[in-house]
Amino acid sequence: MARPRRFRAAEAVAALLLLVLSAACGSRLPESDFEGGGRTTPSAAAEPIRVGIITSATSPVGGDAFTGPRDGAKAYFERLNARGGVDGRPVEVRLCDDGGSGVGNNECVHRLIDEDKVVALVATTALDYAGASLVSRARVPDIGGQPIGAAYDTWPHLYGIYGSLAPREGTVGWDGELYGGTEVYRYFKREHGARTAAVVSYNQAASAAYARLVERGLKAEGYEVITEQVDFALPNFRAVAADLKEQGADLVFDAIDSHGNARLCAAMDDAGVELTAKVTNVQNWTSTVADDYKDAPRCRNALWATGSSRNFEDAGHPAVREFRDATEGLKTHSQWQLEGWAAARWFTEAARACAGEGVTRACVDGWMSRSQGYTADGLLLPVRFEQLPEPPTTRRACLSVARWEDGRGWVSQGDMDHTCFDVPQLAYTP
Fold first, then answer.
1. Residue 199 to residue 176: CA distance in whole angstroms
2. pLDDT for 27-45, tens place per residue?
3. In whole angstroms, how far apart are CA 312 and each of 30, 40, 75, 226?
4. Residues of the chain whose pLDDT is less than 50?
5. For 399, phi and psi rounded to 5 degrees?
6. How high is the pLDDT of residue 5?
């Protein structure tokens, strides 16, 4: 079943914009196929299958904010090639850093599509995906990209990592609006009895707009909502923390950057604020929490993350274990790395299906358009592309939930395939 998870994608969008300001069942690829099924390592004479990865690696956001999906995808392709490639053909990865600008993104699209002749783009993570229309017009499948903007709900031939229900005919969503569910808020209300939620934002347009979106979702689920706004240049987080303690907030959501979150957490620790959860998003679901929140041990251990993919710490799951084994040399791990790995796996499955007739753009794109309910062997909630003529009013939506615990890292809270709710879908303008 389709599960639009746009609110969670919007969380990442808001966080990234603010950082710039501050500086089912699906087809599966079994392990036996991954290991090559007895194939030999690709020889130098084997014609490679060329793919491109566009990443805003040197954007104003910072050197590592966008690189997780790229690193996960690279790790998958390296292991794939070591174990035989696709029918003996290695996958050749061409990287392009667009610098976080629209001009740079268009240059990357031109280079990879027109000059390097890539079969597909994989795990795109672009701050400004200005070249999306060019990718679509060239009919190059873009597989498993991060929906930082609205491109994956606008253009055909683009297949975002979370799927899309929108028509994707060249205009955003339905008449310029996208829709998202309230499953995150429903989860904390049903599972943890939360009734009062605070939303912290800056006095800045993008931050305030996202805070209003969260507030709407919370109110739709019956929460009492506390709104807290701080000055962007000189935020007084101590005052916010004191008010949160006085009003007895159960949950804290935010529309502020990572540095601001760390300062907010430290202020809440100093004020003795006790929370059910300080809720963050998939972009901040990383192994660096202990360092990022080193001055806020109480708040740190109240951090919860929600998303649409299986916890990268859940090594008891075989598909997660494959990912962790292949990336054990990386300094840090993150949920975005796991999603990049899943995107590369998705492309590989399409390429295997096309190997007989030829791994072409058209064949891979045709396979992708039919890959309904894809899960990357359980790494993703089932992904669909339905192109509904009218927006949904309600949907059954599932979510992955994890909580940070010192000494254990991110600990999964239930199984994402069964943490599901029938929730309303609320319109918003991206």
1. 26
2. 333 343 444 444 445 554 5
3. 19, 30, 14, 32
4. 1-3, 9-10, 14-15, 18-40, 44
5. -150, 150
6. 55
Report the phi/psi class of residue 87: left, alpha or beta, with left for phi > 0 and alpha for psi in -120 to 50: left
Residue from 86, 82, 78, 91 nearest 118 by CA? 91
Whole-number Cα distances in Å, 91 to 56, 338, 430: 22, 19, 35
Helix (H), strand (E), coil (C) string for the chain: CCCCCHHHHHHHHHHHHHHHHHCCCCCCCCHHHHCCCCCCCCCCCCCCEEEEEEECCCCCCCCCCCCHHHHHHHHHHHHHHHCCCECCECEEEEEEECCCCHHHHHHHHHHHHHHCCCCEEECCECCCCCCHHHHHHCCCCEEEECCCCCHHHCCCCEEECCCECCCCCCCCCECCEEEEECHHHHHHHHHHCCCEEEEEEECCHHHHHHHHHHHHHHHHCCCEEEEEEECCCCCCHHHHHHHHHHHCCCEEEEECCHHHHHHHHHHHHHHCCCCCEEEECHHHCECCHHHHCCCCHHHHCCEEEEECECCCCCCCCHHHHHHHHHCCCCCCCEHHHHHHHHHHHHHHHHHHHHCCCCCCHHHHHHHHHCCCCECCCCCECCECECCCCCCCCEEEEECEEEEEECCCEEEECCCCCCCEEEEEEEEECC
CA distance 140 to 340: 18
CA torsion through residues 154, 339, 79, 351, sign? negative
d(CA 402, CA 410): 6
Look at the domain 181-307+402-428 and name its fold: Rossmann fold (3.40.50)
Q: Is 428 left (phi over 0), alpha (psi -120 to 50) or beta?
A: beta
CB 303 within 8 A of CB 401: no
CATH superfamily label, 6-180+313-369: Response regulator (3.40.50.2300)
How far apart CA 296 and CA 288 sit, in angstroms, is 14
- Other Cβ atoms less than 10 A from the Cβ of 373: the count is 16
Residue range 322-335, pLDDT digits in tens: 999 999 999 999 99
**CA 35 – CA 88 distance, rounded (Å):** 12
Instruction: Report the C-alpha gap between 309 and 377 in whole angstroms.
Output: 11
For the chain, the domains span 6-180+313-369, 181-307+402-428
What is the predicted pLDDT for the residue at 2?
43
Q: Which residue has the tokens 């669909």?
A: 384
